[in-house]
Description:
This protein has three helices and seven strands, in the order H-E-E-E-E-H-E-E-E-H. The chain has a single domain (about 1-105), classed as Protein of unknown function DUF2002 (Aspartate Aminotransferase, domain 1, Alpha-Beta Complex). It is α+β, with helices and mostly antiparallel strands and about 110 residues long.
Amino acid sequence: MEELMSRLEHVFYLNYFKLVNKTTKGTEFKGERNGEIVYLIPNKTISIVLDPNTISEELRLKSDGIYHSTVLKKFPKRLNNGESKITYGYSFKFDTERELNDFLNRYGR
Length: 109
C-alpha cells in the first residue's frame, strides 16, 4: 500500500499539485494552478475527494458520492449520522494511475 501511495503522490506532483499534509487517513494536496484542495484517501482502490464548495455540477453528478471524514480538514462540515457535524466532500474512484493522471490533468488547470 505504501508503494502505491508513493506512486500516486508522484502523479499529483506531475499534475502540479503540491503535498500539504499527510496522515494515515489521507494526504492533502493543493493545486498550484487553481488553488483547489484534493485529498488522496488510502483505500484498495484509488480514491480522491474534492471540495463540495468548489466542485462543478458536472463533476458532482459524476462523483461516486459523498465521503465523510475528519481528515478533510479544509472542507465544510455537515450532519451525517451522528449528533455532531463532520467534514465531507465528493469522492472519485479510479481503476488505474493513468485514469487518476488524466483526471488531475483536466481538473488542475
